[in-house]
User: Fold this.
Amino acid sequence: MPEKFKAIVIDNQNEKFSRKIEELDTSSLKDGNVLVKVDYSDLNYKDALILNNGAKIVKKYPFVPGIDFSGTVVNSEDKKFKEGDRVILTGFRVGEIYFGGFSGYAKVDSSFLVKSPNNISNLQSMMMGTAGLTALLCAFAVESKEKLLMGSKIKEVLVTGATGGVGSIAIMILSKMGYNVHAATGKKDKNEYLKELGAKNIIDRNEFSGESKLLEKGMWDGVVDTVGGESLTKILAQTNPGGVVAACGNAGGIKINTNVMPFIIRGVKLWGIDSSAASMKRREFVWNEGSNLIDFKKLEKLTKEVNLKELLETFPKMLKGETFGRILVNPNK
Ligand SMILES: NC(=O)c1ccc[n+]([C@@H]2O[C@H](COP(=O)([O-])OP(=O)(O)OC[C@H]3O[C@@H](n4cnc5c(N)ncnc54)[C@H](OP(=O)(O)O)[C@@H]3O)[C@@H](O)[C@H]2O)c1
Assistant:
């Protein structure tokens, strides 16, 4: 018997883009082999771009966006999952080419689902979502300077786009790892917020704009960069020998105009992060490790819960850089 539920549906009939909340039923979910009752989703920058105009990512309309969700399995054609299992979905192009999580139910391929660790609730996993997974992947990349690559001890670490979802969680994780975290932000009124997350020092993001020398004074042993563009050029030139720059975002621009000196004189590593395509093995490792590195009480304070209607009012603010922290989406409210 099909269940009815609410979902955000975007459409692009005759080149006219629209978004609204519609009532669907589970028989309209055609992809995948596991049906999940969605408890929570969340708003990521990519979701905001897709909600805005499809971002040239969505090709098939009408479409249900939402790149993340957590929930409970209702039925599964794959023995790996059974009714009642709690699951997490992030990425794998769900919410881009497959119907996503801004919805009361979702149906996806079993190979995309992670069984939720016992010590993380469905609410907590979406307070993290793709942003949290990405922040963890970035933090492990930074940590590899010391661990995997057996380099000198990491002291100073820079996080850009500091008040954003990825940036905020990265600050929490890196300070928990014991590093001095420097937070680069464009928001002058968020110093207290960033300090509470664990930042030792706040830097105005304008300090990373303008011409960069081939090499500048070395300052960072590790960097989590969510901004890209012009500032990444300068940051690479300011990275200490052997330092790792984990590049995951483009909130400030797509192009970088760098030179080989940071790489061949200082052995700087530019480490690209793509959370959407991370292997299942890595996801399971990261989600399990995550619970030791995330202070969920702190994370709760930086998370705002919205329903589907409020989500439609919130995403334009994210595109203008006016949001901070995490936006949790409750599709059943
Ligand atoms: N590679 C991956 O797997 C992956 C996964 C998740 C996200 N991402 C990317 O990472 C970035 C951050 O994602 P998010 O979900 O954290 O987004 P978010 O919550 O919107 O955070 C982005 C932050 O970047 C800063 N920012 C915004 N516009 C800027 C500009 N023009 N110049 C410089 N800084 C700007 C702002 O922080 P301040 O005001 O504090 O400066 C903003 O809060 C996005 O580009 C997203 O696409 C990539």
Summary: The pocket of NAP is lined by residues 44-46, 130-131, 134, 161-167, 185-187, 205, 226-227, 248-252, 273-276, 318, 321, 323-324 (CB under 6 Å). The chain has two domains: 4-116+302-329, 130-275.
